[in-house]
Amino acid sequence: MKTVLTIAGSDCSGGAGIQADLKTMAAHGVYGMSAIAALTAQNTTGVAGIYHVSRDFLEQQLDCIFTDIYPDAVKIGMVSEKELIEGIAGKLKQYGAKNIVLDPVMVSTSGSRLLSGDAIGTLKEVLFPLADIITPNVPEAEVLSGVSIRTKEDMEEAASKIGEYFDGYILMKGGHSVEDANDYLFYHGKKKMFRGTRVENENTHGTGCTLSSAIASNLAMGCDMETSIQNGKEYITGALLDGLDLGKGSGPLNHMYRLK
Ligand SMILES: Nc1ncnc2c1ncn2[C@@H]1O[C@H](COP(=O)(O)OP(=O)(O)OP(=O)(O)O)[C@@H](O)[C@H]1O
Ligand SMILES: Cc1ncc(COP(=O)(O)O)c(N)n1
User: Which terminus in the chain has less CB density within 10 A, N or C?
Assistant: First the structure.
């Protein structure tokens, strides 16, 4: 069985973070493992609190995983703080981790900061060089590039700025657009669109976590990058179309929609 590790934050309400990642992995038939960087107290209406684990404890979790069940792919989500990012990078290097999908989670849909401001530089300098693909949404791509994004040309400019310090695949997600849900892949000066029909569903809690875990699951199963993204896109669209409606705010997706 193929194995995938998520390094991210826990969402006690089950819609985003580690919980969304593990559900996505189970739905793909891969064996999911988790190293928890932070515990959050949150639900569909917002984040009430964050409890960071220590660097030592996060490293201990990674040692336990890598020395026993080696992951075929790694997804990285909410990593909160500088020291944790440095710890993760050290362990990924030490164990030669491969197929690394990095979702640069910065702010929750509900508006809470999930990555401290002074950690963004560390993320770029220390963790980006290890990633095969990064999956910023438009606001994250703006922070990473310093370009204000309104048009498709702005996206290209932002990707080329990010490309100055990141050598891998850049998937810019269009979930925040109003007219469509197209995602754009940039790689070494080339661009490819992954077309998405906008689903009229307010319940989008955890879409980014789900997409990045679906891509990691596909990479673990041996798909190439573009096929992994295409399959991930189809999976997220299906999960949104299912129309699950839980909670009082922006609710979670049905990760198991294919089993219906
Ligand atoms: N309403 C929608 N209809 C169809 N696809 C969507 C919709 N909203 C998001 N997506 C898709 O979901 C994936 C995640 O994109 P999004 O831009 O929402 O990421 P994100 O903001 O990082 O997610 P998160 O809400 O977890 O922070 C992308 O493939 C995007 O196109
Ligand atoms: C632990 C954790 N990780 C990631 C997100 C981002 O997801 P969203 O933007 O849908 O709130 C989150 N809310 N919580």
Answer: C
Give the residue numbers spanning the domain of 22.
3-259
pLDDT digits (tens, 9 = 90+) for 151-206: 989 999 999 999 999 999 999 998 877 778 999 999 999 999 999 989 999 999 99
Ligand 2, residues 106, 114, 204: which to mutate, most atoms within 8 A of Cβ? 114
Domain total for the chain?
1
In short, whether 115's Cβ falls inside 6 Å of ligand 2 is no
Which atom of ligand 1 is nearest the CA belonging to 250? 25
CATH number at residue 129: 3.40.1190.20
Nearest-angstrom CA–CA distance, 218 and 73 = 9
